[in-house]
Amino acid sequence: MIKWIFGNWKMFGSNRHVQHFSHFAAKERAHIPSHVHMGIAPPALYIPTLQNDLQQLGILLGSQNCSAHPEEGSFTGQISAQMLKDAQVDFVIIGHSECRTAGETENLIAQKVKTALEAQLNVILCVGETLDQLIAGQRDDILTHQITKGLSGGKVHLKDQQIFLAYEPVWAIGTGRIPEVDALKETLAFCRALLNTLNRNDTPLLYGGSVTPDNIRHIFEYTHADGVLVGKASLQPEDFFQLARNCP
Ligand code: PEP
Prior knowledge:
The protein is an alpha/beta fold. The chain is 41% helix and 16% strand. The termini are close together.
């Protein structure tokens, strides 16, 4: 069964880093098992630099966000889904907790999902509860709200494009903490059941939050995750490729 390994570089990187990543990827790609499908979302500036190399290696290229506006216009600082498609981007991450914290609302996120899908981009929709919400027993309500709302704009006819759902507990992102196995299993099963009620049975379900080459096997062995979304450990190609190699 396919395992998806997506990396999100956030606002890290440089020309030197991109070069190093490409060289390393060219050497290592052949050692990655064929059931492991990889993708990288660098800062937008490096998308054109990486495009050719990643395409040749069969590694998907992603964007960390996109504009909600479907048409071009006077939207300073924004990049449209159509422009990303033009740059041969394969997928876009939408609703990351860092963007939600910066003020992105559920409505905006739903609009972005719709716009990206209409531009024939694959979408990774990120959802997850904060620590306070977890402690207050609100996890399932938060996930229900974020998933239902996030996908409400996505009633677009899917042809080649696909939606991925990434469960990323906010308290696990960049903290070195991951949920207990039973809790993670239960939450992913909850997301899966909700997706089924929304007629999204075929949505691959990802886990994100402090995934490393050391814990990846554990995550896949004990849960039904179809893949992972990786922040910090995707930056150094040594870690990212080791993580992919360690995929059962
Ligand atoms: C993320 O930002 O989506 C993420 C999962 O980060 P990290 O792997 O560093 O926890």
